[in-house]
Design goal:
The protein is α/β, with parallel strands linked by helices. The protein folds into three domains: 1-66, no CATH class; 69-228, Rossmann fold; 258-345, Orthogonal Bundle (Conserved Hypothetical Protein Ylqf, Chain: A, domain 2), CATH 1.10.1580. The chain has twelve helices and eight strands. The strands form two sheets. Strands 3-2-1-4-6-5 form a six-stranded mixed beta sheet. Helix 1 (3-16) crosses helix 3 (42-66), helix 9 packs across helix 12 (314-326) and helix 11 crosses helix 12 (314-326). The radius of gyration is 23 Å and the shape is elongated.
Length: 345
Amino acid sequence: MPGAERLRYRQACIEMLFHPPAYTFLDALHIQAALSADFLPVCVAGIILTTLMDYAELNKHALSGWFPGHMLRAGKQLQESIRLVDLLVELLDARAPLSSRNPELLAGQRHKPRILLANKADLADPAVSRQWEAYFAAAGERIMFVNSHRLGNVRRLLQDWKQFAWAGKSRPAFVRPLRIMILGIPNVGKSTLVNRLHRRNKVQVGPKPGVTRQNQWVSLDDGFELLDTPGVIWPRLRDKCHELLLNLLGNIRDEVVEPYLSAQFLCLKLQELGAEQRLIDLIGADAAKAEPEKTLTLYARKRNFLLPGAEPDLERATVAFIKDFRDGKLGSLSLEKPPATDKSF
């Protein structure tokens, strides 16, 4: 098979497999045998086999990348610390509230009062955020969409949390601060929230996941104690799309995910959500219905990211395109809708 045709087949396989489960090499061999025996040429089945093995290998290495040893320890420490607090404040990413919520984090902890904070609400589509509010309300959960950099009246917010925590309960006989645990997956803004509530920088923050590595208690002047916890992602994500989505949001480190796949996924996601106008505004009219690789090529030329010979520098374009999304240059954009109306990947 000619090289160009082989590349086209391989790209088609990758796009077809954007929803793979955690394939093993044995799974890949079975699939390859079935495909080649039924209707596909052996050469095409071989390409699919290679692609599946790539995914299996990537899944194997990525697992140790996004779930390092300190996360396992942090998860156990978090479970042990829950008994020490009166209220749980769980942070999510407003652009993908369900996908950015660790289902294993608070398993079996329904008895503890809990408030959901969907952070980075300024980067999400307000109309979709309202749908999420209705979704969580129907599930009996309280959610607030916020921007941790601009919380407004912090004192009023804390007093509201105190009333919620003690609702229907007898308060302790002795006077003590209300203890609040701040938790969530990496890089959803937990430490930024703690610093904003404290009104000064008490804990270290950074734009990458994994800055907080251990529990940190912070005392406030208003009779509150905050427990900032490390971000913890569950060991097995749903599928490849889930991994790419969390990488785009900054919850999984760029070092353990192929940036080019994340950028392609974002292009496909924008088209799936009917948000082609964002691509047009950023790149030009030709990007509206283009294939992901073509979109990134157009973006590279638009930004003048060129290699010798005027070839587009796709590696540089990939990094810049993802940064534009994370910085909000594609506008307020939600990458996930509530399950009842979700037509995304």
